[in-house]
Amino acid sequence: MSVQITIRGVPEEVRDRIAARAAARGQSMQEYLRGQLERLVAKPSVEEWLRQVRADKRAMTNNVTTEDILRARDADRK
Mean pLDDT of all residues in the chain? Predict the structure, then answer.
């Protein structure tokens, strides 16, 4: 079920620029803005993205020590 959203206090200049962008795409302002909103929520916010990166980082375990890396590097030099 779709809902209606009303945004008050939009400056005329902003409305005019949105109207121009919609017209350039052959869309109504409603179609244009609906598409922009869908595109906006399709991507995670910066906060959501950071939360996921941090969770992924915590989940990763690295059992390779610095000494292991240096030993492997030095073994290639012999």
Answer: 92
Q: How many helices (H) and strands (E) does the chain have?
A: 4, 0
Whether 53 is in a domain gets the answer yes
User: Token pair for residue 63?
Assistant: 């059992």
Locate 4 and state its tokens: 């209606």
Instruction: Judge whether residue 4 has pLDDT over 90.
Output: yes
- Work out how many domains the chain is built from and give that number: 1
Q: Is residue 59 part of a domain?
A: yes
pLDDT digits (tens, 9 = 90+) for 29-48: 999 999 999 999 999 999 99
Domain that holds residue 34: 12-76
Tokens of 75: 């073994």
What residues have CB less than 8 Å from 52, skipping those under 6 apart? 44
